Protein 1
Amino acid sequence: MPNKPQFLIILNIVVLGVLLLISQQVWAQDWHPVRGGIASGISGMALLEQQSNSLDLLIAHDNKKNEARLAIISIKGKNQLEYLPLNWSINIKLPIDLEAISSVPGQTNSTFIALSSSGKAYYFRLDRANKTISVLKEFNLPGIPQGSNFEAFGLQDIDGKLVAIWAQRGEGEQPAIIYWGVLDLTRYQITPTGFANLKVPFPSGNVRHISDLKVDPVGIVYITAANDPGDDGPFQSAVYIAGYLGFRGNKIAWRQNPHLVSIYRTDYHKIEGIELIPGAEGGVIVGTDDENLGSYVYIMGGSK
C-alpha cells in the first residue's frame, strides 16, 4: 500500500494523463442522443463489447413503473446510436429505481450486478441472443442505514480479491458516503471494511455529490456528480478522480483525494452513469439522465 506522498503522486499522474487525453481529438465531439423522454434516463452503464469504431454498453434505467429497466446501446462511429431494450427475468419482480450497474470481473462480460436506490442488488446473466436477462440472486448491501439513497456501485478484482465499492449520493450540504468491502459471490455477501464522507466543489446547489462511480484495476476510483433542479433542468455535472482503493496487509484501505480536480464538467447535462473503456481506442464514457430531455452519452478521450 503506497504511503500518502506516493498516493498523491499516483493521483497527480492519473489526473494529468486524463487531462492530456481529453485535450486530444476525441472520437465524438458532440453528445450522442440515446432516447427522448423521462423514462429513458441512464442511471448506470457497463461495457459489453469493444471493437474497432464500435462500442456496446449495457445501461440501467431508474424507472418505477412498467417500463424498461435495462437496455443495450451500440455506438458505431458517427452512425445513429442503436437502442435495444431487454426483457427482465420473468420470475423476479421488476426492481424499483435501478441506479447503478457493474460487470463482474473475470466473467467475460456475461454477468453483472445492478443496484437499486434502496440497496437491493441483482446478480444476473445477460443473454444477448434472446434479448433477456436472468436474475441469479437478489441480495442486500450490508448495514443499510435508514433513509439511504444509493446511486453508485462498482466491482473490481484488486490483488485477487473481488472488491465492491458503493455510495449514497448525498445532497446539498449533506455529503455523499462511500462504502467499500469484499464480495463473496459464493455466499452473495459483502463484508464491509470502511466508509468515508465526500463532497465535491462543483456543481453546487441541489447537488448529488456522487451520482455514479467506477474503479479501475489498480484501484483508482472515478466518480460523477450532478445537480438536479427539476425535470427540465438546467443541469450541471462533473467527473472526478476521488481516490484510491488498495490493500494494507489483508485489509482494504481508502485514500481519498484531498484536492478534487474535475477532469470534465458540463453545464447542460445531468451525468448519472460512467464507464471506463480500456485500450488504444478507449476513454471515459458518461451517460445522462436529463429527465424530460431524455438521455445522452459522451466519450472523453476516445479515438475517432
Protein 2
Amino acid sequence: MAVTQTSPETPSRLLPLLRQIGATAFSLVITFIGLLAVTFIISRVVPIDPVLSILGERATEAQMEEARERLGLNDPLWMQFGIYLNDTLHGDLGTSIRTREPVLEEVGRRFPATLELATLATIIGVLLGVPAGVIAATKPGSWFDQITRLIGLMGYSMPIFWLGLMGLLLFYGTLGWVGGPGRLDAMYQMTYDFDVTAYTGMIMVDTALNGRWDMFANAFSHIILPAGLLAYISMAYISRMTRSFMMNELGQEYITTARVKGMPESRVIWVHALKNVMVPLITVVALSYAYLLEGAVLTETIFAWPGLGSYITDALMVADMPAVLGGTVVVGAAYIGLNMLSDLLYRLVDPRART
C-alpha cells in the first residue's frame, strides 16, 4: 500500500509567506499605534481646554476640576494615552462636543459620502490616466505627449477651490448641465430619507439596489462635477507616473526581443509592458485614492458635500477636538488599510514578491 508523503519543500515555501504576513501585520499595528500617538499629542498641545469647551465659560473652578478628574485629565500622560488607546481599539472615539453624539456614529454617517465621491473619482482617473500615460510613453515628443504633459501640469498647478467655483458657475449656473451643491435635490433627499433602504450610505449604490433610477440619475447629476474635478487631479498624477513607468519599461531587453520576434506592437505594449508596469502602478493608484479620501476637504466644502472632510472642517471651526481627532484616526486607518490592500495586490500581480 502506497504511502503519500508530504513534500519537505512545502514548509519551506510557506515559511517566507508567513514571515511576510507577520511582518506586514506587525508593521500595520506599529503604524496605527503611531497614528494614535500623534493624534493624542495633538489633542494635548493644541491651545484648547476640552473642559472649557464642554462646560462653557460660566463654569466654576470646582466644576471644571471635577470634570478634569472625571475625564482623567489629571492622570499622568502615559496613563491617559493607555486609556485613549484602549477606547479607540474598542471603537470609542469619544463624544462630539457640538452634538453630544458618539463620534464613531457621526463618522459612520459621513464617511460613505466621501467614499462614494473618492471611489468614482479614482475610477475615472484610472480609466483616463492609464491609457493616456501609455500612449504618451509610446510616442514621446508627439502632440499627444505634449498635451498629456500639459494637462498633468495644469492639474498640479490649478487650485481645486478655483476649479470648483468655475465649474459650478459654468456647468450648473450657466449651462444647467449638472446638479447643484449637495448629494440630491431637496425633493429627492426627503424621499431618500424615508422611502429608500440605505444599505451602504452611498446614494448611487442604494438607489440602484432599490430600483430608484430617477433618484440615481439625480444623484449622478450632483456627483459628476465634484468627482470629475477630483478625477482630473487623480488623472494628472496617474498619467504622469504611468508615462514614466512605461518609458522605462519600453527600454528593457525583453521588449526589444519581443519586437524582433515579430510580436504585434499592440501586444508588446498593452500586454507585456503594461503587465510589468501594473506592479508599481498599484501603489500609485492606492496613494491617489487615499489622497482623495482625506484631501477632498475643499471640494466637499465648495459643493456642500456632507462627507468626512467637511465634518472635520466644521468640527475644527468650533474647536470640537474629539470629532477632529476621531475623523483623523478614521482617515489614517483608511490610509493603512489601502497600503495593506496595495501590498496584497502587489504580491498577486508580481510572483517574485511572494518568495
Protein 3
Amino acid sequence: MDKSQKKWVYASLGISAIILALMVGSTFNEETLTYLAHMNIFFLMIALGLRFVSFALWALRIQKMSLSLGYQVPFSHCYNMVVANLLAGALTPGQAGGEPVRIHELYKAKMSVGDATAVVIMERVLDAIMLVALSVCSLIIMGSVVWTLSSGIIFVIFFSLFLLIFFILLLLYAVRYPEPAKRMIMRFLHWIEIKMKKPSVQKIISKTDVEFDNFCSGINAFARHGKSGFVWGSVCTILFWFSEFVVASVILMGLGLPPAVSESMLAQIIIALVSMIPLTPGASGVAELSAASLYALFVPTAALGIFILLWRLIMFYLNIVFGFIATMFIFKREITT
C-alpha cells in the first residue's frame, strides 16, 4: 500500500471515528444504558446476515448480466469480487474505487475489457435509475417530512438527484450518439489539461479514449443480445437496495425500538443519494451526519448515537474487514498464477 492509499485509509477511518465518538458522547446518558442492557443480539445478527444477502444479490446481478453477453462467470468469483470491491469503495470518494476492481475481476474471468466495462457501468445505471425512482416516490409520498429538514439537506437531496439524472442522460446520449459524445468528453478533458498543466491528465485522456470505445462496443453487445441481462439486473437491483435499506430498521428493533420502516426507508434513500457525491472517502462523516439529522426525527436522543454506531459498524467498518479478506484471496491468486 503506497502513501496515497494510506492517506485515504487514515482519512476515511479517522473522519468516521471522530464523528461517531462525538455523536455517542453527546447522546449518552442513563437511558442509553437501558437500551444497551435490553439490546437483542438476535436482531443484530439478522442485520449482519442481510449484508451477506445483499452481497449475494449483487454477485447474482453481475453473473446474470455477464451471462447475457455470453460469459460464464462462476458465482463464487462474482461474490468475491463484490466483497473485494467494498474495500476500495469504502476508501475512495464517491465509492469510485470499486469499479476498477470489478472490471479487473471480470477481465480475469475471460471477459473482454469492453464487455466488462459495459457490465459495471450498466450496474451503475441501474442503481441510478433505482435511486431516482425511489427518491421521486419518497418526495411524493413523504414530501411533508422532507420539507421539515434543514435547507442544507434539502439542497443536497436535489443536487444529488440532479447529478444522477444528468449521469443517466449522459450515458443515454453516449449510446445514441457515440461520436459527438466522445468529442464532447475529449474536449472537456483537453480543457482540464490546459488549465491544470499536469502530465497525469494526458494519461487520463489516453485511457478515456480507449475505454470509451470499449464501453460503446459493450453497450452495443447489450443492445443486440443482452436484454435478459437488463431484466435480471433490474430484479436484483430492486432486491439489493431493499436488503440494504432494511438493515437500519432491523437494528432499531435490536435496540427495542419500533422499526419505523417508511421513515427509515426515506432516510436511507436520502443517505444513499448524499453518499454518492464524492466529498469524502467512503462518505465518512457525511453519512454519519446525514443519518443523525434524519433519524433524530423519530429515534430517541438516548439511542441515536448507539444506533448510528451500530449501523456504520455493519454498513461501513465491516465492509473494510470483509473487503480486505476478499482482496487477500485475489492477491494470493495473482502471485500463484
Protein 4
Amino acid sequence: MKLKEFAKHLDLSPTTVSRALSGYPEVRESTRKRVADAAIRLGYRPNINAVRLVTGRVGAIGILMERGREVNFAEFLSGMGERLGGEDIDILVSPIAEHDAKDEMQLYSRLVESRRVDAIIVNAPRPNDERIALLHRLGMPFLVHGRSETDVPYAWLDIDNEGAIKRATAQLLDLGHRRIAMINGRPGVTFSMHRDKGYRDALVERGLPFDPRLVAHGSFTDEVGFRFARSFLEQSPRPTALVAGSMMTALGVYRAARSLNLIVGKDISVIAHDDVFPYLNADNMAPSLSTTRSSMRAAGTRSAELVLQLLAGKSPTEIHELWPIELILRESTGPVSALS
C-alpha cells in the first residue's frame, strides 16, 4: 500500500499521515493514534524516502567519537541502536582526534551545513562549551550527554558524577581510610570537575585536607590506571584506598598493586566507577570490585529516546535528566585496620 492509498483510506492528506507517523507535535493526539492503529491493522510501512521528502528529514543522528574512547563509546552506541532500530533512523559516527577542539568545531559545522543529520548528540561537555553555542546558533536540534555551565538553553542527560564519587570516598572514609587517592578523567571536562568536587567535599566534611599528590587526571585506560596507581603506591606513606574513574582504569590499578606485591582488598581498597559492561564483570574480578553503577548502554538508549522527543517538538528546556548512582560493595574494599 502506497502513502496516497493509505491516506485515502483514512480520509486524510498524505502530509498529515506522514507527520502523524513521524511524531510531529502539530498533529492531534487522536489523529496520530488513529493513523498508528490503522498502520498496524493494515500492515502499512511507510517508504522511508517518501517520508523524508515530506518531513524534510534525512533519518540520521550524528555523534562524534574521540579516538581512544572506543570502549565506552561502543556501549553508548549499542544503547542508541536498541532504541533506533525500529525507527528507520541511522547513526552517523564521525571520528575525531583527541583534544582537537578546532577540528571538532569544524566537523560540527560541516555536519549541520551538509544536512546529513537531523540532530546531534554532544558527549563529554566542557564548561561554557563552544559546541553547544554553535549548534544552538545554527538551529540544529541536539542533546548533551553531560552538562555545561553555558547560558544557552539545551537538552541534557547526565549522571550524578559528583554524588557518585562523594559517596565512594565517604564509604572509604567510613572504613577508616584517610589517605585516599583518585584517578579522575581528563581535565577540563565537566564530569571530571563534578567528580573532583565530590571527592573534595567528602574530605572537607570529615575535616581532612585536600592533597593534590593523591589526584591524577587522564584517559580511562588500563595503561593510564597502571601508571598513576603505581606512582601513588610508591609514595611514602602510600594511600590505603583508591577511587578509579572507570572499570578500565581499575584493571590498571589491580595490575599496579600486583606489581608491588600488594593485595587488593587487604593492602589497598579500591572502588571504581562504571560496572556495567558485557565483557568486563566486576563480580568476576579477583577480588570482586566495589563500584558505583552506571550503564553507558542505558544512557545511549535514553539519549536516543530524548533526541526523538526533540525531533517531535519537545522544548530543550523540558529535557533535563540527572540519574542517581548506586554504590555496590564487593571484596575490593575493607577497613583500614585490616590493611597491612
